[in-house]
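Appendix B, Record 12. Input sequence as logged:
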Amino acid sequence: MGSRDRGCREGFVCQIIKHLEAGDGVGRKIFFWMLLMVYSVLIFIFSSRPEVGVEQYFYGQDKVMHFFTYGIYAFLCLIALSDKILILKLFHYFLALSLSVSYGIFNEIYQYFIPEREFSPGDILANSLGVITFLILVY
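Logged structural output:
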């Protein structure tokens, strides 16, 4: 039993992971790549909409949303890239970091061309910090 899977016996997420690892690796990879693609499309759709009446509950709420959105994106990217869910290589982390940060930058550039949206270096920073934080937490 590797150091990454200690304590992963009874939890719901652990059961899903074990089930996905029990099958062939190709099916698992396809599942997570499809999940990543669906999540990418959802980010793109929400980025394409003009910001109309989004209620702010606290200062910096949009940055927190960017942080978590791209942190989750990086996590999904990492899982899609890995050979086994609980066995990750340093290369997978760097690739997930590069892909996630690049997608965040691309998305901000894209928003520059959308009416009532804007390019925001602060959003790129929040995206990148979310990516880095989630990848560190998973490591």
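The chain has one domain: 8-50+59-138.
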